[in-house]
Write a structure and sequence with these properties.
about 325 residues; 7-stranded parallel beta sheet; 11 helices; Rossmann fold; elongated; 12 strands
């Protein structure tokens, strides 16, 4: 086929983050590409899309609707730099355009962050660091129970890419992994050393609970007041998925009691959190600003995967990471 026209929809910042000179050189060998930094629908953007065979989208791209692609769409491929295509592309577009994503690098990064936050809570790192800043003197005559991850029972809620990557990373700690996910195949869970259980059983029996699930109508608020009350005293709740999985007000109630600790990379309905939000002030909460998959190395790998999908398209090869309409039900 002739060299396809590629429109890269990326802000100035994300364009530099996702695409290395090497990736852009590879893209230029087989396509004619241009870039648009527009972040909202407009006549100018629609005019640019009308001349494109391929769209490459990023986290700053506008949500793509059927109307934006024109009466007789020329676009045949949308290669997304990231995983969450459901919030980027209208579902009806999947009927006539191939959609790909690049989720694996993000899954590994988020799983790594989950392990880091788990160790932070279990080893009480924030509390000890605060003591050191405040001049507290400790000796080896003082000791606490439960400050090791080895041998614990860890619950993983959601067993997609992130959940599976987390289970693999936890293997050296020899933990007992329980998994709750109605879509998970038992064989896949068993292969990772886990056991499938009901969500309430997982919450009751695990001292560490890590949320890795997609946010869907079924999972929104799944950790409500009732389910949070099932957490054991002294347990640790980590959310590296979506803030909407947890009822924030119900979580605040539990945290005020100092019954549990939590580590949150995501919050809902407020993200970023206002500077004066109560969550920022509670000593038993560790907060990070939605950066679990934010490293530049991960972004460059994501961009390289998206570029490879475009190169395959230009060479008449099938995509490696196609997203189908059937997959959308279990995606954020």
């Amino acid at each position: 086929m002739t060299r396809p026209n590629v429109l890269v929809l990326a802000s100035d910042a994300l364009f530099q983050h996702f695409f290395s000179e090497e990736s852009l050189a590879k893209l230029g060998e087989v396509t004619s590409w241009t870039r648009s930094a527009l972040r909202d629908d407009s006549p100018q953007l629609r005019s640019e899309i009308a001349n494109a065979d391929v769209l490459m989208t990023t986290w700053h791209s506008p949500f793509l609707t059927r109307e934006m692609l024109g009466q007789q769409p020329r676009v045949k491929l949308i290669a997304h730099c990231g995983g969450e295509v459901k919030s980027r592309v209208a579902e009806e577009i999947f009927e006539f355009v191939t959609i790909t994503n690049a989720a694996d690098p993000m899954a590994r990064g988020v799983a790594e962050m989950a392990v880091g936050l788990t160790l932070t809570l279990v080893r009480r790192i924030p509390a000890y660091a605060a003591e050191m800043r405040n001049g507290v003197i400790r000796t080896n005559e003082q000791v606490s129970e439960g400050e090791t991850l080895f041998g614990r029972r860890v619950g993983i809620v959601g067993f997609g890419r992130i959940g599976r990557a987390l289970a693999e990373l936890l293997k050296p700690f020899r933990v007992d992994v329980l998994v709750s996910d109605p879509y998970a195949q038992r064989e896949a869970v068993t292969a990772c050393g886990g056991t499938v259980v009901d969500l309430d059983e997982l919450v009751r029996s695990c001292s560490v609970v890590v949320l890795c699930a997609a946010l869907t109508p079924e999972t929104r608020g799944m950790f409500d007041r009732r389910r949070l009350s099932l957490l054991r005293d002294g347990s640790h709740l980590i959310n590296v998925a979506r803030g909407g999985l947890i009822d924030l007000e119900a979580l605040l109630e539990e945290l005020r009691k100092k019954r549990i600790t939590a580590a949150l990379d995501v919050t809902d309905p407020l993200e970023p959190l206002p500077a004066d939000h109560e969550l920022r002030k509670l000593p038993n909460v560790t907060l990070t600003p939605h950066i679990a998959a934010g490293g530049i190395e991960m972004r460059r790998e994501i961009g390289a995967i998206a570029v490879e999908e475009v190169i395959r398209f230009a060479n008449g090869l099938p995509p490696l990471n196609r997203v189908t309409t059937e997959m959308l039900a279990t995606m954020t």
